[in-house]
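can u do me a favor
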């Protein structure tokens, strides 16, 4: 005989005692009459006593059954309450999550959605770390991270939220003063600002949209920075060219303060990823909503070319980024719902 308490048998016995009918108990629990009958018989055999006196017309508790029914009903009621509590808790994120995100993206797209998020989930606490430096999720104790990159193979679990294009940009004043480059090789005659925090030397790679020609150049200019924010003032003042991810560029396209360059060329496309440790290393508090569920139609459709006119680029990028805001708000942050005891 198993040493494990027959909770199923006790629950079904309690429901039969309450309903005074095997058929009514089966309907209430959504199982067959045979299932209920077998469970009660198994419980009787385990306990060594009859719980019901049964005839073809009536069902009555024995004295032994009467004594057990009250305790079994209490166990069944407490189990229902525990299940209701667990169901309610699982749908209400709570607790602490340590989340990392790129500086510019976190400032522009994550932080603005947090007030509404906290109004909906007041028991949720986020340690939001904004940095463009590489973060060691496991070593630094992060539950998750948003990353914008071309993801390499690793031990981390990464889910693509949306592709992220890169735009080569300059201000209208710069273009009026120094001209618009027609080929990536022309960039050698221009001031180009690059990033200092990349693992290897910053190289801009281009592919021609029609011919497939590939071209790589090493940007040369007066400034290298660890973030977009460090480069933008010099570019907006009309002193240099740089490359920007679309979640930054779209604002300046719509304001006509920047324009995309090299319309017939594209740069390698990265992606916005939601990254967590492996299943083995991931803390139990990360419920994995994002990993276990699909986005119910929250997909980002990619259309058009890299080298659109500024207005078209702004409109498309803006549409994609609004969808990104929705996905992050609905899935990315909720993916770390914590259930605290």
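np, heres the sequence
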């Amino acid at each position: 005989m198993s040493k494990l308490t027959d909770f199923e048998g006790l629950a079904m016995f309690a429901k039969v005692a309450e309903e005074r009918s095997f058929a009514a108990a089966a309907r209430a629990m959504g199982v067959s009459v045979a299932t209920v009958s077998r469970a009660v018989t198994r419980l009787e055999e385990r306990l060594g006593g009859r719980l019901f006196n049964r005839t073809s017309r009536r069902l009555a508790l024995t004295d032994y059954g009467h004594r057990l029914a009250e305790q079994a009903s209490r166990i069944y009621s407490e189990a229902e309450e525990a299940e209701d509590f667990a169901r309610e808790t699982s749908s209400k994120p709570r607790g602490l999550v340590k989340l990392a995100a790129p500086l510019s993206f976190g400032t522009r797209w994550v932080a603005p959605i947090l007030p509404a998020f906290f109004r909906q989930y007041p028991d949720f606490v986020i340690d939001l770390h904004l940095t463009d430096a590489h973060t060691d999720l496991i070593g630094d104790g992060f539950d998750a991270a948003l990353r914008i990159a071309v993801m390499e193979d690793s031990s981390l679990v990464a889910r693509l939220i949306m592709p992220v294009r890169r735009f080569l940009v300059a201000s209208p004043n710069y273009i009026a003063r120094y001209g618009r480059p027609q080929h990536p090789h022309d960039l050698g005659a221009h001031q180009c600002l690059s990033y200092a925090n990349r693992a290897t030397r910053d190289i801009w790679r281009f592919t021609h949209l029609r011919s497939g020609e590939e071209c790589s150049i090493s940007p040369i200019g007066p400034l290298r920075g660890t973030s977009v924010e460090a480069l933008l003032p010099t570019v907006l003042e009309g002193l240099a060219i740089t490359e920007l991810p679309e979640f930054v560029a779209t604002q300046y396209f719509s304001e006509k303060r920047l324009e995309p360059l090299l319309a017939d060329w594209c740069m390698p496309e990265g992606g916005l990823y939601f990254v967590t440790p492996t299943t083995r290393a991931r803390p139990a508090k990360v419920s994995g909503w994002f990993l276990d569920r699909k986005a119910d139609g929250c997909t980002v459709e990619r259309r058009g070319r890299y080298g659109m006119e500024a207005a078209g680029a702004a409109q498309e990028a803006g549409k994609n980024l609004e969808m990104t805001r929705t996905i992050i708000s609905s899935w990315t942050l909720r993916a770390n719902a914590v259930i605290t005891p």
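Confidence is low (pLDDT under 50) at residues 280-324, 326-341. hope that helps!!
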